[in-house]
Write a structure and sequence with these properties.
There is one protein chain. With 446 residues, the protein is α/β, with parallel strands linked by helices. The protein has 3 domains: 37 residues; 182 residues, Rossmann fold (3-Layer(aba) Sandwich); 172 residues, Response regulator (Rossmann fold). Helices cover 41% and strands 19% of the residues. The strands form 4 sheets. Strands 8, 9, 10, 11, 12, 16, 17 and 18 form an 8-stranded mixed sheet that branches. Strands 4-1-5-6-7 form a 5-stranded parallel sheet, with helices on both faces. A 3-stranded antiparallel sheet has the order 13-14-15. Helix 8 packs across helix 9. The longest helix is centred in the N-terminal third of the chain and has 21 residues. It is globular, with a radius of gyration of 25 Å.
């Protein structure tokens, strides 16, 4: 319509009715300005490819809540500053059903919608397939390139042997996590017999391998009495595994299990009455604390980039904002790395002045993001985030979450998780510089 108004005005300007020409021209300009003002600003689309149905739907929904909260924080302050305007962020959901092939179909759907940023994390096998597919797509269609932002697929190969310029990981990889967890395990002199149980896919197998190496190097006196791999997302009854663990005489379980595979495992162990400790990647999440209950106090440990009782003022404020958004406190599983990822992405887009993938990738490489919530650096060599880590142990929660200072009730922490009545307190803190593993990535750059 704006184009048509200009043509009409130009025709009248060649006629003798110059006054009419001027009046219509002014009206056309005013109308064009009004139309332009009414046009909505194009959002920056972030496509999340996760299983929102199937065995791990609860994990997909949890991630989506975290990410939507992180996007809402950016939009509340006006969105992303680009040269033409401020643009809101929009989260677009693509249901992979937890399957690799379906995830690739969803990636094509995101590509067709010209989604510049693809987000995923709840499977290293899916992440590897997406990383390869994004690299191939970007080579074929340089005018519609994408970045793959990985928030929790932690197989080390993704930033080593299978590294890609177009892939960025915003979580500590499994080597980094296992190193921190093994240090905590080695310090516990009560441990003598360890049982490894993990999901049978690339990540689970890597956790098993890393656990063996780390325990052998730190505590050669500890005996590994079992090393079990089970089907991913298909075991409905873990009681046979619990019976094996009991028979082995293990006093400790080391596992990278996540989602329902972790919840059902710890429930089976509790019901069997086996008095074991857990050293986990995700034992603070998605129903695991509730499933093990009182039996987990002092016995369940988890490793993460942050936890609610870490005591960081800036992060604490963000976490309280998140809790305030929840309609059901049982949904209170929060990963601070999602906020870190979105804030780093926004800063990179604003520095690049565009959402074009190559320019944003170059702005992300080597970027240090200051606190709040805490300082991290995206290593240029392999696109692995260098982040602090906490090993925390499960304990009772108690006290007023709104209090200025944490309560001083013995044996309790300020915040519980998922309305379980149980929280986690820091047992070991590892600075980002202490946690960095040597990169083995041979980056091919465009």
């Amino acid at each position: 319509m704006i184009g048509k108004a200009r043509v009409a005005g130009a025709g009248l300007c060649r006629s003798p009715l110059k006054g009419v020409c001027a009046a219509i021209g002014a009206l056309a300009l005013a109308f064009a300005g009004q139309v332009q003002a009414q046009q909505p600003v194009e959002p920056i689309r972030l496509g999340i490819i996760e299983g929102f149905s199937g065995a791990f739907a609860n994990a997909g929904e949890s991630v989506a809540r975290n990410l939507q909260f992180a996007l809402d924080r950016v939009n509340a302050r006006g969105g992303v500053r680009l040269p033409d305007d401020r643009h809101p962020l929009a989260l677009v959901r693509f249901d992979s059903k937890g399957q690799t092939e379906e995830a690739l179909v969803m990636l094509r759907a995101a590509t067709d919608r010209r989604t510049p940023f693809v987000l995923q994390g709840n499977s290293s096998a899916v992440a590897a397939a997406l990383s390869d597919a994004v690299a191939r797509h970007n080579e074929r269609e340089p005018g519609n390139r994408q970045l793959f932002l990985n928030y929790s697929a932690v197989d080390p190969a993704l930033t080593n042997e299978r590294c890609s310029f177009w892939h960025f990981r915003f979580d500590a990889n499994a080597e980094m996590r296992m190193s921190a967890l093994a240090d905590a395990l080695a310090a516990n002199q009560a441990i003598g017999r360890v049982y490894l149980i993990n999901q049978d896919y690339s990540f689970g197998r890597e956790v098993s391998r890393l656990a063996r190496l780390a325990i052998k190097s730190r505590r050669p006196d500890v005996e590994i009495v079992g090393d079990e791999l089970h089907p991913l997302g298909r075991v409905k009854d873990f009681s046979p595994y619990a019976a094996k663990i009991a028979q082995s005489g293990a006093d400790t379980i080391v596992t990278g299990n996540w989602g329902n595979d972790l919840t059902q495992l710890v429930r089976a162990i509790r019901e069997s009455g086996v008095p074991v400790s857990f050293y986990t990647f995700y034992g603070n999440s998605l129903g695991a604390p509730s499933a093990i209950g009182d039996a987990g106090v002092g016995r369940v440990r988890a490793v993460a980039e942050w936890h609610p009782n870490a005591g960081l003022p800036g992060a604490d404020l963000i976490y309280r904002e998140f809790r305030a958004t929840l309609k059901d406190q049982r949904d209170d599983y929060f990963n601070m790395r999602h906020v870190v990822m979105i804030e780093m992405l926004v800063a990179a887009i604003e520095e690049a002045g565009t959402t074009e993938a190559l320019a944003v990738a170059r702005a992300l490489e080597g970027r240090t993001q200051p606190a709040p919530p805490y300082q991290v650096t995206m290593r240029r060599d392999d696109h692995q985030l260098l982040t602090p880590l906490y090993v925390s142990v499960m304990t009772l929660a108690g006290g007023d979450p709104g209090a200025v200072r944490p309560v001083a009730i013995p044996g309790t922490v300020r915040y519980d998780v998922e309305a379980s009545g149980f929280g986690f307190r820091t047992e070991r803190f590892i600075r980002a510089a202490q946690n960095a593993q040597e990169p083995r990535c041979l980056m091919v750059r465009p």
